[in-house]
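Explain this record to help learners:
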Amino acid sequence: MKKKALVYSKKDSFWKSCVTITENILSTYKMAFHSQDLIEIDLNDEMEPKQIYEQAKDLFSKGPDQIVFVDHHPHPWEFIKHLDRLYQGKIPPIYFHLYGDFVCLSNYYYKIKDILERTPTTFFVASSKHARLINKFLETKNNTLIHPFPVNEQLFFYDAKMREEARKEYNLLSTDKVFLYTGRITYQKNVISFLKSFVKYLHFNPHAKFLLAGNFHDMGIPYIGKYQETGTTFYSWEQALYFLPREFKDRVSYIGDLTQEELQRIYCASDVFVSLSTFNDEDFGMSPAEALCCGLPSILTDWGGYSDYCNISDQYTSRVKVEMGHDEISFDKNELMKILLKDSFSFVRKDISRSYLDIYSRESVSKNLIKCFDHIPATPRFNEQKFRSISEAFENHFDSPFKAKGGGFNQSYFELYSSYAN
């Protein structure tokens, strides 16, 4: 069996979802391969240049047959340059587990483009639309493999008894139809926009309830330089609650930033998961994956990684079209309202759970991982013009890399992110 070096940060990421993703990916390697064939190498953002070199030397001395970069941060470009010198230009096959931030880290990948073009390299991407986006940087098309992020099946599954207990815990009536959003709460997650549509829906179904869980982030739309002051997102939510019609004020609640155990309980207790994200890094979506594995039917935007959930079952997931406008990427509010009014969300929850765990559980993903390593890696050839232009945009205008001269998104953004749209 070939030895694999797993390079990742043993210091937790600043993104909560990325911590979960990294832990789950590592667990699939331990399920798929013998422990004696796995070499773990720490690479974190507190390391000085000399320490990075020492870690590269440590990896080299252990003689792995394959090198796997599991984490998204820090970017390993310096580490890889050290490896190139140590291996005298003949690095063993490299595998990257790509997260949604490949585009905004493109200038770092560009620094090692020449090394990668003479090294067998495979990019593991978590969804089909992310593969389409990454392939726009490549002339060769056999360097990307779709390999989804795994879900911890011991934490996320449907439990009828848990549903009953959690509904009591959250004071939910048997007549309440609970819509739920979990995850980061930012401008591009479109939570406030959904709330406005939800208020209209309440006139037709006063028994509906919307629960929001997650932490608030003030990101704005960074790709075009639209930043928010600290506290803006939370203030917008509070304002939206303040202006709710009096008769609907008890139909909307923020329930906090939940632990994974608490998330399972609220997934089981709820009736419909909703995420209308148009976030530029939405390559996969851990929250929808976990919700669906808990048997929760979902309303999702047809955007980025979300589309794969809809492709698996358009019965259990309802997709909402995305409109790429000059100043903003938005969801089709009319289509959302039609889905809400149709009210076709009654399914056997265990059937939904089983359908998605069959694909996204760590056990299922570990089996797919073995198949991925049966793939013969090839050296990539990058689209020099595309790669250089995007890299330079982030190098020279990191605060607004896709901003058009008159404001709004530029043509490069539309060319690249059309991969994520319908």
Observations:
- The chain has two domains: 4-150+366-399, 160-360.
- Residues 300 and 361 are 20 Å apart (CA to CA).
- Residues 4-150+366-399 form a domain with the Rossmann fold fold (CATH 3.40.50).
- Residues 16-32 form the longest helix (17 residues).
